[in-house]
Amino acid sequence: MTTNFDQIVDRSGTGAIKYIRRKALFGREDVIPLWVADMEFRSPEPVIEALHQRSNHGVFGYTLPGDDYFETIREWQASHHNWEVDREWMSFVPGVVPTIGLALEIFSEPGKDILVHAPVYTPFFDVPQKLDRQVVFSNLKLEKGKYHMDLDDLRTKLKENIDVFILSNPHNPGGRVWSKDELKELASIAAENNVLVISDEIHADLVLNDYRHIPFATVSEEAAMNSITLISPTKTFNIAGLSAATAIVPNSEIREKLNHRMHALHLFRGNIMAYEAARAAYQHGEAWRKELISYLEENHRIVHAFFKENLPEIIPMEAEASFLVWIEFSQTGLPPEDVRERLICEAGLGLSPGKAFGPGGEYYQRMNIGIPRQLLLHALEKIKHAFNSLEVK
Fold first, then answer.
1. How much is the mean pLDDT over the chain?
2. DSSP three-state, residue 162
3. pLDDT (tens digit, 9 = 90+) per residue, 58-73?
4. Rounded to the nearest 5°, which phi and psi values hold at 245?
5. Assigned CATH class of 60-284
6. What pTM was estimated for this model as a whole?
7. Architecture of the domain whose range is 17-44+287-385
C-alpha cells in the first residue's frame, strides 16, 4: 500500500464541521468526532496536485465543466458500474441534497407525500418537511443482520398520495447494497403508480468485499425513464467540501424540467476547484480508491471482531458499502439516552444518534470508521471502558 492511511491529519483551524460543532451537539469540545460522514484521510495526491495547478494559474473567472468533464464521468460509470450513460443525460449539480430539494419542488406539490425508507439518511425526510411535504416511511426489514426492502409495504404505500420516492443506494446508515431484484421490483411498483424515484448513489464507489453496486436506472427501462440518479466523487475521494455532483436523467422530459429550474436559479455553474478535483479523482484516483477500500475493509473487520470478543451485546451491522457502521445497542438493556450519555461522557466519543435517522433507528448509533487505525482502536477501547460493566438484560 503506497498511501499512508495511518497518518493523523490535524484538522484544527480548518472549519471542519465535525470538530467545530462538537460543543453544540455533544455538550463538550473534547469528544472524538465520529459523526459527520467525511473521512480523516488526505485526498488522493492527483487531486491535490490538480488543485495546486489550477491555483497556480491565478485566474478564477466563471467556468463551465466542459465536455471532457462529463466524458470522464461517462467512462467511470461504464467501467465501474457497467452503465453506458449518454452525455445528454448528465448535468452538473452543486450537491446531492440540494438537488433532492430542487427536484421535490419541481416534481411534487406542497401537501403531497414523499416516501422514504426508515431508518435512512436524515435529509431524506428533513428536506421534504422543510418544503411543506408530508413524509411517509416504509420501514426496512431486519433479516439475518441486514436490512431488506419491505416490498409489500412499498406496494401498498406507493398507491397512496405519493409523488416521489427517495432511495439511498447504497443505503445510509445501514450500508446495504440493494439487490437487482429489490431495485427492479421497486422500479416496477413506482412506475405503476407514477411515482418518481430519486436515487442517491453517493456511496456507490465505496462498495466493500465482493459486493457490486447496481445503479437504479440500469435495472429496467421503466427505472431509467422514471428516475433521477445523483452521483458524486465527494464521499469516495474525501472532497465533500468542494460540492461536486452529477444528475443523470435518461428521461428527456424530466431532465428538461430539472435543467430549466437549475438555469433559472443559476445553479448550473459550479466551483472551479470542484471541477478540477472531480476530474482528477475520476481520471487518476482509482489506485488510491482501491487502497482505501482495502483499508476500510480491515477497519470493518476490526470493529466486528472487537465487539464480538469484548462487548457481544453491542452489535454492528455488516456493512456492504461505505465507511459507516450502524451499531445496535438494544441488547445492552439501556435506553437510547443512556447509551448516548455513556458514549459522550464516559467514552468521550461523538457518534450520530440513531433516532436522527427516523423510525427504527432509536437503539442504534452511527459510527464513522473512515479514520486512521490507531484512532479507531483507541475509540473502540473507550467504548469498552464505557460499557464493560453492564449486566446484559
1. 97
2. strand
3. 999 999 999 999 999 9
4. -150, 165
5. alpha beta
6. 0.97
7. Alpha-Beta Complex (3.90)
